[in-house]
Write a structure and sequence with these properties.
The complex is a heterodimer.
Chain A lengths: L1 H9 L13 H11 L4 H23 L2 H20 L9 H18 L4 H8 L15 H9 L3 H12 L4 H8 L3 H19 L7
Chain B lengths: L10 H8 L5 H13 L1 H22 L5 E3 L1 H9 L4 E4 L6 E4 L7 E7 L8 E6 L5 E5 L10 E7 L9 E11 L2 E12 L7 E2 L2
Parallel strand pairs in B: 2-4, 3-9
Antiparallel strand pairs in B: 1-7, 2-10, 4-7, 5-6, 5-8, 8-9
Helix pairs in contact in B: 1-3, 2-3
Classes of the chains: A mainly alpha, B alpha+beta.
Chain lengths: 202, 195
């Protein structure tokens, strides 16, 4: 018993857990406690949500530059709120970030510009480093595309190059929108297998 | 923090989400899941990376495929330098891709009425098939099959003849709709430049 008490007395204060190991709620608490000086915690927020915000931007704005702007704007908003302790439910950080994305895109469509004001307010004080994009073996993708049946390849080109909707592709290829979706699922399955992607069972 | 996803979203659903083929309510659910799940966000990022790769390779003219005219129009509008030929049935025409060209496009006329499946057969000098593109897209309005060939293909680096047969396929039977040849010389002569 004495030994145990002695041991306790000798223990150093526990160092802060690495930001990556924290839950969203833990991360929110850490950034708030840092009061704007916890670089690692804020960088973890950016690492965790930056790519998801970019994907949201690409999905809804279909433009790489606009998605990059959205990513910066939303991260500035979120980090500002975290520093101010204005997040009522820390465990729902992901929902909050998604809500901020939806609001930012709606505002953008209405012509409301908030990014400049946020940049002016926070400047370069907030850590909003751009994440490295996923790497792609383009030579391998080239070979994999060459191996696809013509219709599968055509659907992928229409979808990802021409940005056509399924019903528009259906008209071009004299088929139905449902069939376009089926062909696209098959094409992407072939492509992922050829590229060595892991199988995911939902 | 890495959390194992207990209900991963399947690749087909992620693709339908990306291409806006899901009902709005379901798309919203997928979005919420992706924001809360690092694993599914990573898989969506992989899908986006593949999509952008397809876009880049197509925009650069790095493909050999039968395409529709609208794709050729988009490529031309995007600034791709395209050399186009319109050989007639049974004809061999001279073809030369200049160093500045990025894509060769051949427009083959074909009577497409009643044809439900058309195969494009790439042949050797004896018209023996060496590659077949099955069930290719066609342009029924102009009665054409549009074939695009990348200019960085090994065949186009040397003098060669591109021989093509168009075949209507019905109930296992084949019917030739036309045969065409492009005699390629990497030094020229020039064809019709750009669309």
């Amino acid at each position: 018993m004495f030994g145990a008490a002695y041991t306790v007395a000798m223990i150093e204060p526990e160092p802060a857990a690495p930001a990556r190991a924290l839950s969203d709620g833990g991360l929110v608490a850490r950034v708030l406690a840092g009061g704007g000086s916890d670089r690692e915690g804020e960088e973890e927020v950016c690492r965790r949500f930056g790519p998801r915000i970019r994907l949201y931007g690409l999905r809804h704005l279909r433009d790489e530059a606009a998605a990059a702007d959205l990513r910066q704007e939303v991260l500035l908003t979120v980090l500002g709120r975290l520093r101010a302790g204005a997040l009522r439910e820390p465990d729902r950080l992901a929902s909050y970030v998604l809500g901020a994305c939806r609001l930012a895109v709606t505002d953008r469509r209405r012509g409301v510009a908030r990014r400049e004001a946020l940049l002016e307010r926070f400047g370069e004080d907030l850590a909003v480093a751009a994440p490295a994009p996923p790497r792609l073996d383009e030579e391998r993708l080239d070979r994999c595309l060459d191996g696809l049946p013509p219709r599968e390849r055509a659907v992928l080109q229409f979808t990802f190059y021409a940005g056509r909707a399924s019903d528009e592709i259906a008209v071009e290829l004299e088929t139905t929108a449902g069939n376009v979706r089926v062909v696209r699922h098959r094409a992407l399955g072939h492509l992922r297998a050829c590229m060595g992607a892991e199988e995911v069972v939902p | 923090m890495i959390v194992t996803c207990t209900a991963p979203i399947g690749p087909d659903t992620l693709l339908d989400y990306w291409t806006e083929d899901l009902p709005a309510a379901r798309a919203g659910e997928v979005e919420e899941h992706v924001f809360a799940c690092e694993g599914c966000a990573t898989r969506l990022a992989e899908l986006e990376t593949l999509a952008s790769g397809v876009r880049r390779l197509t925009a650069a003219g790095r493909f050999r495929a039968a395409v529709t005219p609208s794709v050729v129009d988009l490529l031309a509008a995007g600034g791709l330098r395209i050399r186009t030929y319109r050989p007639r049935h049974g004809e061999t025409i001279p073809c030369g891709a200049a160093p500045e060209d990025q894509l060769l496009v051949a427009r083959f006329p074909a009577a497409l009425a009643g044809v439900s499946r058309l195969d494009l057969s790439l042949c050797d000098e004896r018209w023996a098939e060496r590659q077949r593109l099955e069930d290719v897209p066609v342009d029924r309005r102009r009665e054409e099959v549009v074939f695009a060939e990348r200019v960085d293909s090994p065949e186009l680096r040397v003098a060669s003849v591109l021989r093509v047969r168009l075949l209507a396929v019905e109930r296992g039977m084949e019917r030739e709709l036309g045969r065409f040849a492009l005699a390629h010389d990497p030094r020229g002569p020039p064809g019709t430049f750009a669309e």
